[in-house]
Amino acid sequence: MRHNPLTMKYLLVITMSAFLSITAKASDFPDDLGFKSLFRIDSDSGIKGPPYQKIVDELKELESTFPEIVNVIEYGRSVGGRPLTIVKIQKKLTIEGKLPAIYIGGSIHGDEYLNIEDRLPKWFAEQSEQKGPVGNFLEKGGVIYIAPILNPDGYEKRSRTNDLGIDLNRDFTVIEAQVEGLKQPETSALAFFLEEDLKKEGRKLEITMDYHCCIGALLYPWSFKGPTLPSEQLIKHLNIVEAMKSTVGGEIKSGTTPTILGYSAKGTSKDFYYEHFGATSFTFEGRRNREDKYFDEHTKMWDLILQRFEFTSI
Ligand SMILES: [Zn+2]
Hints:
By secondary structure, the protein is of the alpha/beta class. It has two domains: 1-27; 31-308, Aminopeptidase (3-Layer(aba) Sandwich), CATH 3.40.630.10. Helices cover 39% and strands 18% of the residues. It has eleven helices and eight strands. The relative contact order is 0.16. Bound molecules: zinc ion (ZN). Residues 31-32, 109, 112, 212 line the site of zinc ion (ZN).
């Protein structure tokens, strides 16, 4: 079929306008989820951190300051050969039974560093000696895992993806979304470590929070469809949403990914933690250029969560 040049010109104009309107819309949703990788929109958090090795060295120093409380574990290697590092904070186990675990992760998108995730280990370790909510949680046998930089290659290059160009927050196995993931070393090593370590100590993963940027929102499952959590699960999630709004900021939006962002994402970490471990799980989306100023508010939030959350395993 022969194309009329005028028709072709018209089609080109239509295509260009559609593209521009989509990119304009995408800039309203600067983080995460497809648009950015499709159109290469800059979602850089605007917050620069030290070299990755310095973060690891500081965690090791923390381990030597609190040898009874802090354990720094290399659970694998990234595509680029960097050590994957997780901090485990706990008191010596004196209690038997199914004990609770909390997991916090940062920079799975390497350019979304907030300088909250890497400061939390020190704060939790210092709190272990106080009689506050963190001290109580640890005293009762709770454990806190923190992996501050999940994508060290991306972090060093200020890139969303890993060294193979893969978005790691689409590489988790989520049966409900028909995604078979854990194909990258960064995601598979983390899932394997958590699975084994929780099993070894008979723990239940109760709460997970992955720190991202830059929507200013707290997102809960599912990432790929509307609000369909059973009411008991929904209430648990909403309680944490409330704790965040009253500490980190009332303007923080909350809901499922499609509700807040208008599109869906399959294979995300929070859906994996929710489905696989039965965790109350979140993606926190920080505020561009300034989330690091709210560190104290984040610590207040964790205090409040630990104070209020009804752990099924304590
Ligand atoms: Zn992200």
